[in-house]
Amino acid sequence: xxxxxxxxxxxxxxxxxxxxxxxxxxxxxxxxxxxxxxxxxxxxxxxxxxxxxxxxxxxxxxxxxxxxxxxxxxxxxxxxxxxxxxxxxxxxxxxxxxxxxxxxxxxxxxxxxxxxxxxxxxxxxxxxxxxxxxxxxxxxxxxxxxxxxxxxxxxxxxxxxxxxxxxxxxxxxxxxxxxxxxxxxxxxxxxxxxxxxxxxxxxxxxxxxxxxxxxxxxxxxxxxxxxxxxxxxxxxxxxxxxxxxxxxxxxxxxxxxxxxxxxxxxxxxxxxxxxxxxxxxxxxxxxxxxxxxxxxxxxxxxxxxxxxxxxxxxxxxxxxxxxxxxxxxxxxxxxxxxxxxxxxxxxxxxxxxxxxxxxxxxxxxxxxxxxxxxxxxxx
Length: 379
Ligand code: PMP
Ligand code: GLU
Fold this sequence. Notes:
Elements: H1 6-9, H2 15-28, E1 34-35, H3 47-58, H4 71-83, E2 94-97, H5 99-111, E3 117-122, H6 128-134, E4 138-143, E5 163-169, H7 181-194, E6 197-201, E7 226-231, E8 244-247, H8 250-262, H9 269-280, H10 284-307, E9 310-311, E10 319-323, H11 328-337, E11 341-342, E12 344-345, E13 354-358, H12 363-378
Parallel strand pairs: 1-11, 3-4, 3-5, 5-6, 6-7
Antiparallel strand pairs: 2-8, 7-8, 9-10, 10-13, 12-13
Bound molecules: 4'-deoxy-4'-aminopyridoxal-5'-phosphate and glutamic acid.
4'-deoxy-4'-aminopyridoxal-5'-phosphate binds next to helix 5.
């Protein structure tokens, strides 16, 4: 066969998905693996959301919908984002996508020209860099402070003639940290000064502990240059539904709609009805899950400290980001094959020397994972 796409040959598979697949394979072979490598809530989707989807199926919502999403969902999202996040937006500023991942990819396709640079704040979730590359852009990395995980003046040094975009993610996957107001203001100022587009991935906004989430697009006139990304996977335990969204300035949204029309058309129509119920329904399920995650977070961070590990400030999402002494790839390999604990090495997030543990597992399994990690560390 002749050579395939050079662009894709240079891109690695998703580490989070690959490691989890390995853990699943080991489990199928009868090995008792504690899988903490994937960021996925272990709760069932709340029943009222599933019911709304089943109702939609029954009443025949099984056909094509408008490409940017059903009007009822775009309206509910616009109300949420303008009311809760103070980002001025109407239904016409919203696109509903196949998960937040798809929204991120479409935003990159919409904004970047070949060779345009996108600044990514490291440690960064595994798919930002590949999405930039698939869109023909060039990723440029800026490292957040290794203790505070905040932005400092060094960010400006990463901006050059070709910079077009900054990708921000708070609460952060993998660090679990939350950007403070000073960091967000710094990003906003740079976007204004250098005429940049921000992609602000806020998918973990509801999973936050003792801090307040602030949308980048709510600062000054940042809504005019920010694509806000969010979705239902994390807050409502809806990973398999594949519903995410973006709120974007009109010229960018128009381009994203074209990408969507020519690729996926739109997410499953009946699944979008479930998402309407998620936003319009009682929100206590979100708080219940958040509280449960908070208890696990405290347990895991304390246990890791007892074992002798430092973690990044675990203020959001459901990850403990652990500083290890040594090669994170080698240590994660040892945790998986000797201790049967699946975790994701920091190298996958451009942060060698760290390992990400997802605490989206029940306390008994987390307890077992901590026991095993303690045992391999001591051995
Ligand atoms: N952004 C971040 C930071 C994530 O951790 C994830 C999880 N996969 C996503 C986006 C994508 O989420 P989804 O496509 O399931 O909405
Ligand atoms: N966001 C999750 C993670 O980081 C899900 C897997 C993925 O899409 O990368 O593990």
